[in-house]
Amino acid sequence: MNPITMQLVADKYIKMALEEDISSEDVSTNAVMPEYRKGDVQLLCKEDGIIAGLQIFERVFTLLDANTQVEFYVKDGEEVKKGQLLAVVTGDIRVLLSGERTALNYLQRLSGIATYTNTVAKLLRGTKTKLLDTRKTTPGMRIFEKYAVRIGGGNNHRYNLSDGVLLKDNHIDAAGGVSEAVAAAKAYAPFVRKIEVETENLDMVKEAVEAGADIIMLDNMTPDEMAEAIRIIAGRAETECSGNITKENIETITALGVDYVSSGALTHSAPILDVSLKHLRVLE
What we know:
Elements: H1 3-21, H2 27-32, E1 38-45, E2 49-50, H3 54-64, E3 69-72, E4 79-80, E5 85-92, H4 93-122, E6 130-132, H5 142-151, E7 165-167, H6 169-175, H7 178-188, E8 195-199, H8 202-211, E9 215-219, H9 223-233, E10 238-242, H10 250-254, E11 260-262, H11 265-268, E12 275-282
Parallel strand pairs: 6-11, 7-8, 8-9, 9-10, 10-11
Antiparallel strand pairs: 1-5, 1-12, 2-4, 3-5
Helix pairs in contact: 1-3, 3-4, 4-5, 6-7, 7-8, 8-9
């Protein structure tokens, strides 16, 4: 995540997370450390996985005190092992204690997403199918969670509702049908925007391709239905498979030759990667 994005977008969410955890003061820390003392603490990995979110982890502490220093021994996207020393954080002990939980929450969550995404992305190696995330993200965490997907080897679908046209079932119902929805989108959206249509059956697939959709999503279809849908589309639109996509069933789906597979599970069901801050030392 580049410094501009960090300061313009990410900082406000990190500050909100810190304010959530420190509404007025950190009573525990202020009780045991009422004045400045310099110290350091080790960031340790407690299970194997892919690390992601180190910049966010660091930013939590530097927002509390710009003089905080973090020495990293790994980079985002690297495989880490149980027991590995990942970093040492040095600074005001009050900052180390008060920022600990928020910093770890980010790092554990993002590393968990990167780790899970990586296991799914490996199943797509050697195929033409690209792995996409969805908007099924934690409120206030989207910028971070979608970043973690990329670190894990996945790709981002649209970031938000302003980012592209995706006509889902309720949009289609509101417009009066697939053809009407696509026509309305073409009339309204800038010509540089691709138009994607979510379809639930083969009749909708036929209507979408005839209406000129750029991407056709095959939502919750069986492998046989998807195979027939791909035959109907015949290269006239890109194809995306979605709905209950997991690492357990993804190989069957990619064998059909779809262009994209989108999975909400990358962000809404990934377990955290366990990391911790240990062995705090008073230096002066």
